[in-house]
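testing teh design pipeline on a random one, pls ignore if ur not involved
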């Protein structure tokens, strides 16, 4: 039997395959690689070609199809297809950016995803709850816990950070628990999200905490921050970074987050602590309880990540208005309190 390879470079071979056949084609190629083996390839980038077309550059057709191409690709499509075929993109072929000169050039690692065995008693979920909460989130959690067989501990109190820390401390003392799953009372998710987070944690033992992507309430931004090379908060993150299983971040959230118990047992306390700004005020410059936890993790040099492949919902109150021609207009409730109703929905 021929020994499996550690690395394989297929060049632009993927463009010669129909899109419908691409996943199976990559799986067949993957049989030639050992687990953890590296696949290198390149495809022409459709998005770059379209931008060149808009600029009026000549010969853009060649950028899209070239000779003998039967499929077109962009970053999102390539990342998803490789993921479905059992590969994780780990970076550009040269170690730099993915896209250079109208081509996407990547290296992808073959990764065998473990299958969970139920009941998943190595996971223990914790929730810090108000007295009244969303029943939809509770329903999703109960369904996931019943299907996967993990335990759930709930606590309530006005100081949510203290409640959450006490529950996490209790779980750390339990035998056989490998991961704490923190759940916010207003997150929307299902069992598949938890399984995928668990798979990424199992195959990335250096990750101490893994969050899914979640948009903040009344915001249009995801709940995360990333450090720039100079140590400041990055104002922009390159799109390449989001096409990986575990993207390192500075701060995350607790909406549906897996935390490795062994990583936090010795973490200095308190884990959750609100700190006012330099003027002693609770306005800009303060550190909220949850952010303090991520700073503790950072100071302990523990790796905190977001898994862009897992995307969960965030329940929130909105106001729905009838606009002109009975067109529906949605407005965040905080925007209503700050700015009033939309101008086109005024009573007359």
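output:
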């Amino acid at each position: 039997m021929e020994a499996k390879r550690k690395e394989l470079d297929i060049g632009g071979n993927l463009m010669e395959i129909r899109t419908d056949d691409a996943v199976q084609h990559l799986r067949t190629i993957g049989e030639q690689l050992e687990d953890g083996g590296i696949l290198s390839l390149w495809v022409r980038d459709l998005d770059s070609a379209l931008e060149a077309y808009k600029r009026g550059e000549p010969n853009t057709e060649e950028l899209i199809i070239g000779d003998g191409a039967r499929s077109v690709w962009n970053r999102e499509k390539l990342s998803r297809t490789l993921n479905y075929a059992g590969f994780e993109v780990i970076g550009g072929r040269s170690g730099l950016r993915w896209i250079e000169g109208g081509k996407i050039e990547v290296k992808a690692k073959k990764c065998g995803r473990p299958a969970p065995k139920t009941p998943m008693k190595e996971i223990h979920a914790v929730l810090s709850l108000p007295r009244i909460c969303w029943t939809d989130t509770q329903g999703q959690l109960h369904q996931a816990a019943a299907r996967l067989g993990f335990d759930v501990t709930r606590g309530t109190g006005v100081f949510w950070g203290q409640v959450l820390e006490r529950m996490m401390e209790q779980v750390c003392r339990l035998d056989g628990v490998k991961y704490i799953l923190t759940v916010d009372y207003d997150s929307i998710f299902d069992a598949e999200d938890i399984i995928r987070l668990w798979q990424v944690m199992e195959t990335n033992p250096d990750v101490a905490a893994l969050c899914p992507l979640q948009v903040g309430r009344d915001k249009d931004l995801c709940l995360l921050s990333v450090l720039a090379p100079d140590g400041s908060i990055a104002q922009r993150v390159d799109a390449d970074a989001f096409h990986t299983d575990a993207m390192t971040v500075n701060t995350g959230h607790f909406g549906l987050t897996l935390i490795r118990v062994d990583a936090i047992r010795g973490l200095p306390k308190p884990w959750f602590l609100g700190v006012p700004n330099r003027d002693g005020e609770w306005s800009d410059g303060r550190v909220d309880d949850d952010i303090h936890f991520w700073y503790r993790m950072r100071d302990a040099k523990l790796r905190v990540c977001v898994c862009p492949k897992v995307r969960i919902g965030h329940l929130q109150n909105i106001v729905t208005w009838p606009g002109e021609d009975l067109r529906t207009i949605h407005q965040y409730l905080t925007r209503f309190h700050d700015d009033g109703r939309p101008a086109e929905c005024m009573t007359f």
